[in-house]
Amino acid sequence: PRSDRDWSSDVCSSDLNEQRSGPPVLSMQDLGGTLKTVEAGVEKLVELLPQANDVRREPIPASEIMLGTECGGSDGNSGITANPAVGVASDLLVACGGTSILAEMPEIYGAEHLLTVKSRTVEVADKLLDRIKWWEWYAALFDGEMNNSPTVGNKEGGLTTIVEKSLGAVAKGGSTALEDVYEYAEQVTNRGFVIM
């Protein structure tokens, strides 16, 4: 759902930070620059450390684990080494009833056909293709395109096209069926392998 509301005042407001129950949000603009923000962050960490130290680990079933995978800087080897290893871990987690999320929709651009064929239903495959179309539309708003070159770091690592990067990225999803496709920050409600 979209809104015309300006959320930036909520996120950046120091007063709201004191009232909210979520994690602290520090705004460089409100605090007067990078150095002051880092100093405020360190102060906040010192304040929160006793709470963090009071947390005790407890065993939970693997079915309660939700793994989010993200691009960590692809190179010519990650698509045939680390990413498939993450895919195996994803498959193991899903086999135990957990959830594995392949994040960063633009990262799969050009390799979406590998995911549509393993979608649980036609509707899930269509949802994925709809999200890809949305990203094409969004990139075009800024005179960009999805089918562009990888980053300088990707190129230095041996990748020559965005599709090469995407082919490696989808390997993180393993071999299990794609259960659903979510928008960014949408609550994930399905278990199994999903995309956000």
Describe this structure as you would to a colleague.
The chain has 196 residues and is α/β, with parallel strands linked by helices. Helices cover 45% and strands 8% of the residues. It contains nine helices and four strands; from the N terminus they run ααααβαβααααββ. It has helices at 8-12, 14-19, 28-31, 34-54, 82-95, 112-116, 122-141, 152-156, 162-169; strands at residues 66-69, 99-102, 178-181, 192-195. It has a four-stranded parallel beta sheet. β1 (66-69), α5 and β2 (99-102) form a beta-alpha-beta unit. The two termini are 15 Å apart. 22% of the residues are buried.
In short:
Helix content is 45%, strand content 8%.
Which key terms come to mind for this protein?
196 residues; alpha/beta; four-stranded parallel sheet; 8% strand
Describe the protein's topology.
Elements: H1 8-12, H2 14-19, H3 28-31, H4 34-54, E1 66-69, H5 82-95, E2 99-102, H6 112-116, H7 122-141, H8 152-156, H9 162-169, E3 178-181, E4 192-195
Parallel strand pairs: 1-2, 2-4, 3-4
